[in-house]
Specification:
Radius of gyration: 21 Å
Largest sheet: 5 strands, mixed
Number of domains: 3
Shape: globular
Strand order of the largest sheet: 2-1-3-4-14
Helix content: 40-55%
CATH topology of the largest domain: Rossmann fold
Strand content: 15-25%
Number of strands: 14
Length: about 375
């Protein structure tokens, strides 16, 4: 549930960057330890400059949960991230999303009604008790709760392999089911499953807009991983042609990409992995390395500034920002902080108790697995 807030006054939009920086800094000082500002890796520098912690969505939520003295948690990210923070934090903590329009197109591609309808359809074809639902962290609280209720778990791009192994079994653990229903990013699910040795024909795309996901019953029966037809609008921009152009310019250069990229781009890369993996790869790269990164441009630009000893470019040489993430800007941050100083909590994100309870089950299963 979202508590609808008033619109941001025009004075914040009209203020100069210098004035906004001064007001944000003053508000931070006034609120002191009561305040925690979380900055996702994809955030703009004008916001990230004031973050008390930077990281991925789950890592930042855990930081908020560990800092119980922070009564006000301002999550500079997108909606599903603030939901996760609200689920993990204590009842005395209030989570704020500076702009409620900061959503995630991928998360929105898995609507809870569509997912429940798909689950009912699957139950007419296979033993639904042997289907393990897995959802990527980039999903709504409602989807996480659905997964929790049906015996599944959440995963991140860092631990997707471990969670899939937990569900389908490997040489170390027995299978919990015959197949996985992977939500909402088809590319993370596909790239991870292929890296584990599953065959293409075992990976079946489920299109929620089509009856039975657009598949024949026998195809579903032979599946091992059912992939929800969702994707990231940013990582979907990266192409083989971009890889080719980079390699022509830098024959000795390296290509590293996020697993939300398409299969062909991932297979063409020198390395692929989560955001934390990409950051660690850059930190360990030899001086003078030319590297192009297939992920959100604000992170790439920040890494290029922090590592002048490397030649770092974004694989998409046009532009690939997360547009909804960019809605969290200095004017909105200044506004919600100054309102908080006056005791007015704007744009608070709250998840209803029942949804939060089951979503937490799915998150805790992930922690147990990894």
């Amino acid at each position: 549930m979202i508590k609808i807030a008033a619109s941001m006054p025009a004075e914040y939009r009209d203020a100069s960057s210098e004035e906004l920086a001064r007001r944000i800094a003053a508000a931070k000082e006034s609120l002191g330890s009561r305040l925690l500002i979380l900055g996702h890796h994809y955030q703009m520098d004008e916001v990230m400059d004031f973050a008390d912690a930077r990281g991925d969505s789950f890592g930042l939520s855990k930081i908020a949960a560990e800092q119980r003295d922070a009564e006000i948690v301002v999550f500079c990210g997108v909606h599903f991230m603030a939901e996760s923070a609200d689920i993990l934090t204590g009842p005395e903590q209030r989570v704020i999303l500076p702009d409620l329009s900061a959503g995630c197109s991928m998360a929105d591609m898995a609507d809870i009604d569509q997912v429940e309808a798909a689950w009912a359809d699957l139950a007419t074809i296979v033993d639904i008790e042997r289907v393990v639902p897995i959802t990527y962290m980039n999903s709504t609280a409602a989807i996480k709760a659905f997964v929790g209720r049906h015996g599944g778990a959440v995963c991140t791009s860092s631990n997707a392999r471990a969670v899939l192994a937990w569900a389908l079994g490997d040489e170390k653990v027995s299978a919990r089911g015959d197949r996985v229903f992977f939500l909402p990013d088809q590319h993370l699910g596909r790239n991870t499953a292929l890296s584990m040795g599953y065959e293409q024909e075992e990976l079946v795309l489920w299109d929620p807009a089509q009856p039975l996901g657009g598949q024949m019953s026998e195809v579903i029966e032979q599946s091992r991983v059912l992939l929800w037809k969702g994707h990231c609008s940013v990582h979907g921009r990266f192409t083989l042609d971009q890889v080719r152009r980079f390699r022509e310019e830098y024959p000795e250069g390296k290509v590293i990409v996020h697993p939300e990229c398409t299969q062909d781009v991932v297979e063409s890369a020198d390395a692929w992995g989560s955001t934390d993996f990409l950051i660690r790869w850059i930190e360990a790269a030899p001086i003078g390395t030319a590297v192009t990164i297939g992920t959100e441009v604000h992170l790439v630009s920040r890494l290029a500034k922090e590592h002048p000893e490397l030649t770092i470019t974004c694989l998409d040489d046009e532009v690939c920002p997360c547009i909804t993430m960019a809605r969290i800007d200095a004017p909105h941050l200044a506004w919600v902080l100054e309102e908080a100083m006056e005791g007015r909590i704007r744009n608070q994100i709250t998840v209803d108790p029942e949804t939060a309870r089951w979503a937490l089950v799915a998150l805790e299963r992930m922690l147990e697995i990894t």
